[in-house]
Amino acid sequence: VIAMRNKMFKAKKGLDYYAFIVAVVGISILYWVLSTMLIKQGQISNGVTIGTEQVTILSTYTTGEKALLYVDEAAKMALDYSALTFGKYSFYDPSPTDPNAPTNTCSGHWAIDDLKQNDCGVVTRPTCFPDQAKMEYSFSSIMKTEIDKYIPSFNSKNSIQIPTNYKMPFTFLTPRKTPGTTEVAGIAQSPVTVTSTNIKYEINPSFHESISPDVIADGKAVVDVAKDIYSKKDSLTFQNDFQTIKEKAIKDSATTGLDWSTLKYDPSVSSCQYPIGTCACCQTICVPVAGPPDENGEPTTTESCSQVPAGDGTKYHTIPYDNFEVYGRTYSNEPAPLTGHRKLLVYDPQTKKLVLTELEYDFALNWKKDHPENSPPDSCSCNVGYPCNPAENPPYDGSY
Amino acid sequence: MKPNPKKGAFSLLDCFSYLIYFLAFWVAVMILSVTLTGCGHKNYSVDEKIKDDFSVANTVRADLQLDSMLRTKIPSTADLGAKFDWMKGYQTQKFAGVFGMQDGDFDKVKVFLSQHPELTENQDYAGFIRGLKPLYDSETAEQMKKYGMIKETRQTQITFTAVTAVMFMRSLKHKSSGSSKSDEWYYLPGISVDYNPANMDPRVGINTCEYVGNQGPNTLCTEYIGDIRFAYLVLPAGTILTHVVQAIPLADGSIAKVDFGYPPETVSTLPTT
């Protein structure tokens, strides 16, 4: 190479190529630098479409908005359904899928004193009165399950996917922006991702929806009334106390919006049979025995009957309960045809129709009259034969 | 060694050589710049070269429009009724045959809505569409039972059209050629609803209704019997509706596809100077 260079540049004879090569290399480098710098402008002379990048950015934004609208609509439907279920099942989620959701171990009741584990198969305690935190979590759990039902349809037909990973429980805005409404915000933990050429757009599918009434505030008011009634259960003037509580609740309906006209007290309409031991149960057993010979001297037989222990002899005790079946309803300020009580639009899977259903807050508030250990057994039942003392009640069949 | 005073001196010849080199360099830069940037083009030729593609922009615009329409709250029953009465009275003068509404249809819709408050009370337009689904299903089931085919979904169709008209009817100033007087034209946006979509692809062209043979549309759509179509009214020749779709959840866990045919309000060429 060195020899060639020397031959080209230092030859005394022949052409000097140095300037020519420098010119060619220089122009090439210059062309590369300029074309790199001016390529965008150069496209104009070939025809250029303007605004493509900007429009693509906007397009990804609107694609994300499609997902948000879908989530909002799903949340709107879920909100109505959740309020109805929440009120119907004593402010608990009847079938929680969220492992952290509070479960109603009280079997729909809020108070049956502190029965033992095997007492009528029901374990219920006064702690089953739901507080605000439990109510918010239960409501969120119901609503989350409902929202999860709607999202797969969208994801199966769209390229973008909506995740259903929300912070639990949902956020209940306090104070409410509009008094008398349930305002729920679901904070998404995973984003919807929209990808396009050179663009990755992420947006959280959070939502904020509201309905009237404020079911959490209503729940608190209902629980307060129930606690008032429960606190008077041992009062000798219970009937009067109950009436006073009811009248106060009705009077407060102007502010709470709750209709307590259906609050009623049915004493001892419920009971359960509690097995507390054994008792002697009897049956008559007759056996043939040889009798005296007849007139002809032939042998005869006769029956000899006696009472013997029989059956399992389980001894039962009847536990009577004071019982409330309450349907707290809430008034609606809506114009006709929704005037009267608040109605919610929910899907009826039986008729496959959307139906306006009245919102009710149902709960059962029961307590036993006395504890079986403090009172004598009052019944005895036998599977075979008959009780030595007349049976007063059928044996406990496991149901309450 | 004695130095040569002439060797390495900047002679006149060298000076001119450098000048020629720089001149050549400058000429090369100019040529390349002009070639690469198109500086030599005249204004009108540059204008011709700059293009704009409004198809995506129209899609963005239509998406936002459809989004806001679906979120629009349905008026109260009283307000809807008053608007129906206005349209009914106005129909004989301006809306004759428009929207496919026939005599008595608005009254039928009023009765239907009073029987189904779930369609309108506390609902947005998406909720109204959702509420129509079970009614549409039972209507089509009756048709199948009666005729063995879906002939028409009359009640839900006119309800859909009437409510859509009340909420989203638009007007245009239309001036006929050769006339100094402009008329007011009314039209409905092309919205169709498919309750059992196979996919989420938007429609193509000016039709918003999907017809199955001669059996009528199998979706709810505002152009069911409508006489006015955008293309005949205001669109420049060759322009087509921009169709966009939006999914809305239905109460039974399925999905509805709402297709919106958006007439472009922008001209797809830049104004020439």
The termini of chain A sit apart by 106 Å
Order of helices and strands of chain A: HHEHHEEEEEHHEEEEEEEEEEE
Low-pLDDT segments of chain B: 212-216, 224-236, 266-273
Number of helices of chain B: 8
Rg of chain B is 32 Å
Secondary-structure element string of chain B: HHEHHHHHEEEEHEE
Please give the count of helices of chain A.
6
* Portion of residues within helices of chain B: 40-55%
How many E-type strands of chain B?
7
How many strands in all of chain A?
17
State the oligomer: heterodimer
Structural classification of chain B: alpha+beta
Q: Which range best describes the helical content of chain A: under 10%, 10-25%, 25-40%, 40-55%, 55-70% or over 70%?
A: 25-40%
Specify the biggest β-sheet of chain A. Answer: 6 strands, antiparallel
What value does the average pLDDT of chain B take?
74
Rg result of chain A? 41 Å
Give the percentage of residues in beta strands of chain B: 5-15%
Average pLDDT number of chain A: 78
What pair of chains forms the biggest interface?
A-B, 59 and 55 residues
Contiguous runs where pLDDT drops below 50 for at least 5 residues of chain A: 390-400
Strand order of the largest sheet of chain B: 5-4-7-6
Structure description:
- The complex is a heterodimer of chains A (400) and B (273).
- Chain A has 400 residues and is α+β, with helices and mostly antiparallel strands.
- Chain A has six helices and 17 strands.
- Chain B has helices at 12-37, 43-49, 54-71, 77-91, 105-115, 125-147, 154-168, 230-233, and strands spanning 50-52, 170-175, 182-187, 190-194, 220-221, 242-249, 255-262.
- In chain B, strand 6 (242-249) and strand 7 form a beta hairpin.
- In chain B, the strands form two sheets. Chain B has a four-stranded antiparallel beta sheet with strand order 5-4-7-6. Chain B has a two-stranded antiparallel ribbon with strand order 2-3.
- In chain B, helix 4 (77-91) runs antiparallel to helix 5 (105-115) and helix 5 (105-115) packs across helix 7 (154-168).
- At the A-B interface, helix 2, strand 1, helix 3, helix 4 and strand 13 of A face helix 1, strand 1, helix 3, helix 6 and strand 6 of B.
